Input
Amino acid sequence: MLHLTLSNLRKGASVTPIIEKLLIVQDVDVRIVRMSRELTDIPARKKDILARLEGHHAAVATAREVLKTRQTDMRGLEGEIETHKSQIRKLREQQMQLKSNKEFKAMDLEIEVVQDRISGVEEKILVLMESVEAAQQEIRFAEDALKKEENALQSDLNLLIQRVAEVEGEIARLRTQRNALASEVDPQWLRPYDRIFKNKLDLVLFPVANGICGGCHMKLPPYTIHAARKPSDVVVCDYCGKMLYTE
Ligand SMILES: [Zn+2]
Output
């Protein structure tokens, strides 16, 4: 027999055997509801973990994409330099063919213009090199963050999967237990209890203490208090609809 604790039955309080049985059924029912809620919440928790993992993977992919773009830009600039250099080589070859000093000097100026262009591109390359390094750094950051969290998130995910199996097993076990316990409860009590429990999915049985309903804390009329004292009567609170009993 499983150990059952009756959280809502005060120590030393005495109730009729039927209420005692019903309180045990209620205890099991509340546990089943609580565990079912946990099961319901798990897909959202899994989704949250997967989204965080996905976020890290996306950050790494984005950082790699940025680096790729900057490297492409770099190759473009290096290509520009090659073009300018071959233009200078051609101009120099042409310069060798020139006869007059004036033409020679004019060609020098032309070459200088191209060399200035090369300097301009080289400056761009220096700036771009810094941003390539920054992109490489960004990839390392993103990869580190992924690595750091991946194991923890993966183990959270595994724990949730494990938890589903545990909770499902526990619910099945509690249901079997609940059916066995409920079969011992007089249907006159079990039926209204079941109806109220299904409606509220929360505690159904409340003691009357000092003429007050333990469920809603309203002062009960004398006839209700009187009826709740009779072990044979099923009494429901007029205000909150919960079942009343006297300790
Ligand atoms: Zn009440």
